[in-house]
Design a protein that fits this description.
By secondary structure, the protein is α/β, with parallel strands linked by helices. It folds into two domains: about 180 residues, NAD(P)-binding Rossmann-like Domain (Rossmann fold), CATH 3.40.50.720; about 220 residues, Dihydrodipicolinate Reductase, domain 2. Helices cover about 30% and strands about 25% of the residues. The chain has a ten-stranded mixed β-sheet. Strands 6-5-4-7-8-9 form a six-stranded parallel β-sheet, with helices on both faces. The protein has a three-stranded mixed β-sheet with strand order 1-3-2. Helix 2 packs parallel to helix 3. The two termini are about 15 Å apart.
Length: about 425
């Protein structure tokens, strides 16, 4: 039986449907919270990132984590223990979403499992905090936005840098004009995993306690390999998009914010896997160039050298006619452009300055919870997260088709390239379906 959102959510009380249960549909009135009333949260995906997210949720006095879900028993047991045994454990997220006492869900699954739980949760009347990248395809991301909007749900994407006060100040610096005309923004992630990378383990039977078929979900069925699961899923196309979507989404998000844009007009990418001797599929050497109105942006990823740019292994750099601003999670630094000798018309240059970093994840969680109560739009609203994720995904599409692609951001269409356009969506494995 094909499982779709419409199968999962029906205009009736809870009823058994195939391998899952359906929920009452229709508009959900958001609960009005009293001053001391707790937000009841369910967690879907309890691996390393999921448990890290849980810690900051559990630090909030107005949060109760009542349900946790993971397809791997070891992760599930650790998550239950984090709640002192109070949370109920599930291995099927649809069972968790049947609970009417949940106000919100935290989704920290692998990328290919972000879309369906988010859509189902919104249709079940629950607000959502979902990890980045928002989606595995651009079509999925748009469907997720539509689900949030039609159900009037608060959805925060885990691009937590937007909640860091020093990132906010850095954005103000770019927008203030202190850099002059910004013509280029540089983003990058460097590391050195040469030569063995994540190695080449053989296919085996799944880990004890892991529901491998459910872990794969809508992805094509393959035999279990330890590198395809848990953390290393990021380096396989069926589940993620490599460092470009994993980390690049964070960096591109800040460029979009500071430059007040939400979509490139064209993207070109070059890269391949040539040097690292492991079974990953994503590149070990990657360059992506993005064209935006009035400026260019690039994203670079190397896993062959850790030096990075100006000694920084990752970061964002805005290059303007009057100066350059570098920002990462540890702080930001402005370096003025030397005044051209003999150019008396040039305005005085600003003095160099720098600032330390700030907390990001904890205030990001707090912002989401405050918006659950107030029904205000969170700082990383789902539309914002969708646009930043889309830019990352477009870079991978350009890489795969080996052509520059032209992008209509308003219509969300690739112009004049049928092969590339096919990669805006994907085929789900039966019985899963993106409705």
């Amino acid at each position: 039986m094909t499982i779709t959102r419409r199968d999962f959510v029906k205009d009736s009380t809870i009823t058994a449907v195939g391998t899952g249960l359906a929920l009452s549909a229709g508009p959900f009135a958001s609960r009005v919270f009293g001053a001391n009333e707790k937000i009841v949260v369910g967690v879907i995906g309890c691996g390393g990132q999921g448990r890290a997210n849980m810690r900051d949720f559990l630090r909030q006095r107005d949060v109760e984590i009542a349900a946790v879900c993971d397809v791997y028993d070891a992760n599930l047991h650790q998550a239950v223990e984090m709640t002192n045994g109070k949370a109920t454990g599930y291995k099927d997220f649809r069972k968790l979403l049947e609970r009417k006492d949940l106000d919100a869900v935290l989704i920290s699954t692998p990328d290919h499992w972000h879309a369906l739980p988010t859509i189902y949760a919104c249709d079940a009347g629950k607000d959502v905090y979902v990890e980045k990248p928002l989606s595995h395809t651009i079509q999925e991301g748009r469907k997720m936005v539509e689900a949030a909007r039609r159900n009037k749900r608060v959805v925060q994407v885990g691009t937590q840098q937007r909640s860091g006060s020093h990132f906010q100040r850095a954005v103000e610096v770019v927008r203030s004009g202190k850099l002059g005309k910004v013509s280029f923004a540089r983003t990058w992630n460097y590391s050195n995993q040469f030569p063995q990378g994540i190695t080449n383990p053989p296919d085996t039977e799944p880990l004890p306690g892991l529901d491998w078929d459910m872990w794969l979900g809508p992805a094509p069925y393959v035999r279990y390999n330890r590198n395809r699961c848990l953390y290393n899923f990021r380096w396989f196309w069926d589940y993620a998009g490599g460092m470009l979507t994993d980390w690049g989404t964070h960096l591109i998000d800040i460029v979009h914010w500071a430059m007040d844009v939400d979509a490139p007009s064209a993207v070109f990418a070059a890269g391949s896997k040539n040097y690292i001797q492991d079974n990953r599929e994503t590149p070990d050497n990657l360059e992506v160039i993005y064209e935006y109105p009035g400026f260019l942006m690039n994203y670079s990823n190397r896993i062959l050298n850790n030096h990075g740019i100006d000694g920084h292994s990752y970061g964002i750099q805005f290059q303007g006619t009057q100066g350059t601003l570098f920002v990462d999670r540890s702080g930001y630094e402005f370096t003025p452009e030397p005044q051209r000798v003999g150019d008396e018309s040039a305005p005085p240059t600003e003095k160099a300055f720098k600032a330390e970093g700030s907390a990001q994840h904890l205030p990001h969680v707090r912002n989401f919870l405050d918006c659950v109560k107030s029904r205000q739009t969170p700082v990383s609203d789902i539309e914002i997260g969708h646009r930043s994720t889309s830019a990352s995904l477009l870079g991978n599409i350009a890489l795969k088709v080996k052509h520059k692609i032209e992008w209509d951001g308003k219509k969300e269409q690739i112009l004049g390239n049928v092969e590339a356009s096919k990669l805006l969506s994907k085929q789900y494995r039966t019985p899963w379906k993106l409705a």
